[in-house]
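Repro:
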Amino acid sequence: MELLVPADVEVAALAELSTMLPGNGFPGVTSAAEALGTKIPTADPKPAEFGRVLTTGGAGRDLVTDTPTLILEGYAVTEQRARDLCALMVAIVEAAARAGSLGGVTCYAARVGSLPSNLPHPQVPTHFRFTATVSVDLRRTTV
C-alpha cells in the first residue's frame, strides 16, 4: 500500500520565499541570513527586516491534496517596510501557486484568508509586524 504523506508547508514556503525575496527588494531576508524562518531571530539586535512563516494546521481537501493555512509575518523597523514585506510574501506564495510549485512541492491553488494587517508583537517592541494568512492546496508526497 502506498503511503501519502502531507507535505511540510513551512519548509516549502520558506524555500520559495528565501529564493524570491532577495530579488524583489528584500536582499537580507533569507533563511541563510537567519532573517527568515519559523522563529523570531534570537540575535540582539534583531535584523532590521525579517520574516516568519508558521502553519495553523488545515484540512485534507481530498485523498492526495491538503489545504494547510500559512501565517506570513513581516517585521521591520519601519511600518511601511513591514507592510511591504508581508504583502510581498503573500504575492510570492500566490505566484508560486499559479506556477504550480511552492518550494518544489506541487501546489494547485492559494487563497488569501487575511490581507496584511498591522499587529504589533509585544516581545519585539523594536519592530513593526504585519501578518497575513494564505491557504494553499499542496499535493501529498509518497514515502
